[in-house]
Amino acid sequence: MSRFAYVNGAYRPLSDAAVHIEDRGYQFGDGVYEVVLVRGGKLYDFEGHMQRLGRSLSEIEIAPPVSDAVLKMIIKRLIRLNGLRNGIVYLQITRGVARRDHKFPKDVNASLVLTTKHLQVATETNGKSAITVPDQRWSRRDIKTIQLLPNCLAKQAASEQGAFEAIMVMPDGTITEGSSSNLWMVSDKNTVITRPANADILNGITRLALARIGADRQIKIEERAFTVDEALSAKELFVSSATSAAMPIIELDGHKIGNGQPGDITMALRAAYLNME
Ligand code: PDD
Predict the structure, then answer these.
(1) Which residues are bridge partners to 115 per DSSP?
(2) Is 106 part of the annotated catalytic residue set?
């Protein structure tokens, strides 16, 4: 399934869907994206993703090609066309097509491309392993840009070591986030800690939902940076993203986290998130 893509106004079979070779997304990575989870045919946290998309676009001065309401209609139609019940919608907006020149072109319409992918996020999980890598990204990680080369290098390093995620570390020893996720630790006092959302990290929409869920359940949430050493001695460690919900990290750089099993707080947050109405 997932046979259709949406490209600039048309729903096309994936094999025919194409953008111009002078699209600035292709040439400069000049664009932004969102990944929205779909469960049981329902879009998860859609408003949150739209808000972050609007922010990313305005930070790099791209005018939205369509309104949020129209975008939602396009997404719903693509979901229907592809018979998607469980999976993700990938949405990308670039500055558009222009002769190659670094500065912004004038009077160019932004390009909008959408695809879907089947993916089942189960409540049950045995947890995953992760490695640490240096964070080699730029200083505006709050913008969800399609320029993901450092993230791809990090994820590839993890994959080559049989790990699920690469956790990125600043020169000062603090962790920023995963290559495609936010990182959380649970302290021995059961405080759930995650890095504050400033330009150092992408403010995950799942991160925001989990913080809300935690607060509703009287779980103490603290926003502060933490080091690799703290993460290694944490009671629980987990990453969050639209594609992984809250995923227990049971091993970091070959060291067992806690008792080496998914932790209670992580699994409670995961279940609550996946049961979200
Ligand atoms: N990535 N940090 C980074 C660097 C990410 O790429 C992502 C998500 C997140 C979590 O954001 P959210 O909770 O809104 O998914 C944090 C998506 C899933 C991706 O690139 O595929």
Answers:
(1) 90
(2) no
Q: What three-state secondary structure class fits 176? A: strand
Asked whether residue 123 is domain-assigned, the answer is no
Last residue of a domain, one of 53, 85, 118: 118
Answer with the one of 70, 91, 118 that is the final residue of a domain. 118
Which residue, by CA, sits nearest to atom 1 of ligand 1? 180
Query: Coil, strand or helix: which one is 242?
Result: coil
Q: What is the pLDDT of residues 153-181, one digit of tens each?
A: 999 999 999 999 999 999 999 999 999 99
Q: How many CB atoms lie within 10 A of CB 4?
A: 23
Same domain assignment for residues 157 and 245: yes
Residue range 27-78, pLDDT digits in tens? 999 999 999 999 999 999 999 999 999 999 999 999 999 999 999 999 999 9
Query: Phi, psi (5° rounding) for residue 119?
Result: -160, 130
Ligand 1 pocket residues where CB is under 6 Å: 35, 151, 177, 180-182, 202, 204-207, 240-243
Model pTM score: 0.97
Domain that holds residue 246: 128-274
- Which pLDDT value is given to residue 277? 67
Q: Residue range 188-203: average pLDDT?
A: 98
Q: What pLDDT is recorded for position 2?
A: 62
Residue 105 is given by DSSP the state: P
Strand 255-256 and strand 128-134: the pairing is: unpaired
**For the chain, the helix, strand and coil percentages under 3-state DSSP, each to the nearest 5:** 25, 30, 40
Catalytically annotated residue among 103, 128, 144, 256 = 144
CA 5 – ligand 1 centroid, Å: 21
